Amino acid sequence: MNYRARAARELDAMGAFRSPWLRPAFDAVDREMFAPAQFWTLATDEKGLHPVIDRSADFDAWQAGVWDTHNSLITQMDDGRTPADGPARGDYTSSISALDIAFEKLNQLDVEPEHRVLEIGTASGYHTALLAERVGAAQVTTIEIDPALSAWGADNLGKAGYAPYVVRGDGLAGHPESAPFDRIINTASLRRIPAAWRRQTTDGGIILTPFNTLYANGGLLKLRVHDGIASGPFVGSASYMWARSERPREPARNPDTYALTSSPIDPAQVLDGTWAQDFAIGLHVPHIAIDRQRDDDSTRRAQIRDDTGASVTVVRYTDWWEDGAVTVWGERDLWAEVVTAYTAWRTASQPHVTRYGLTVSDEGQQVWLDKPDHVLRR
């Protein structure tokens, strides 16, 4: 089967080529030249392991995976400590983005041929090559924090005939030597927009980045910069792994003192909603992480922590109205904060993700609903 042709048809059907330059770029850049000989699949097997697809063992399966429009290729686990020589369980720390989200981001970038572009996260170099097809390789600076990935991406790009400026370093610092940039596009999730990006973006330029909270991931944020202030809406969803310096910290032990209370609402109503509901709640309580759990006896619980570890709350789904359904360690009742955020979302008529936005200045970040002066949280 011609998997590349099938991917083109699928992308075309979903509107991924609505920016006219993207179909020629898709045809020009051979994704297979940027895929490793072995990679892990996102789907896990019955043991919970990510299987490896090996080009030499099953070329047809390898090609099908490379041109899969909806699934990314896991190319690194545990910062390179886990070799791609067999099924594995671990934290995936680099991937080649799925075609659907890669092209959606490029549609949202509004990039023109004369633009100077900064890309954060070179990885394989595939995305870099697509950008080079639009603006020319000389107009692209791409940064990768991982030395092995940076060398691999640069090698892939060179073999494919592209010569962008490949930098090994921390992309959150931008690249002052190549600034200013008309477009900055990031390929890892953040909770905070770096000041360096605003300062290195031309007036009227765009910053496009995945944006997470500890509570929920997956927002795609499109900011336009004017007078050093970046502001704009969420334009959709984009689930990416964390930028390395933004990774959540390991949870601390529970504080020693605790209190028992009840829940004012059925936890399932708050915790079993859609991704859009979770993302909206997270925008209200961005420094709270949640871990949904099921005990051996099938009792469902949710453990909620703040990012300092000073407060932890556990809420039980069953008999939620009774004292003891909620256990609060530390000074803050985090379940009460989540319920308040959920109530605010419901009161606002359950707004879609794209009604939210962010403004970033030297004074900090402000989350807003519908317009920048309707601030929800500073």
SS field, number of helical segments: 10
N-to-C SSE series?
HHEEHEEHEHEHEEHEEEEHHEEEEHEEE
Helix content: 10-25%
Radius of gyration: 22 Å
Based on helices, strands and strand pairing, what is the structural class? Answer: alpha+beta
Largest sheet: 10 strands, mixed
Average pLDDT figure: 94
CATH architectural arrangement of the largest domain: 3-Layer(aba) Sandwich
The fraction of residues assigned to DSSP E strands is 25-35%
3D shape:
globular
Q: How many independent structural domains?
A: 2
Alpha-carbon distance between the termini? 52 Å
CATH top level label of the largest domain: Alpha Beta
CATH topology term of the largest domain: Rossmann fold
Characterization of the model:
The chain is 25% helix and 28% strand. With 378 residues, it is of the alpha+beta class. The protein has two domains: 3-187, 3-Layer(aba) Sandwich (Rossmann fold); 258-347. The strands form four sheets. A ten-stranded mixed beta sheet has the order 7-6-5-8-9-10-11-17-18-19, with helices on both faces. It has a five-stranded antiparallel beta sheet with strand order 12-16-15-14-13, with no helix packed on it. A two-stranded antiparallel ribbon has the order 1-2. A hairpin with a 2-residue loop joins strand 10 and strand 11. It is globular, with a radius of gyration of 22 Å. The N and C termini lie far apart (52 Å).
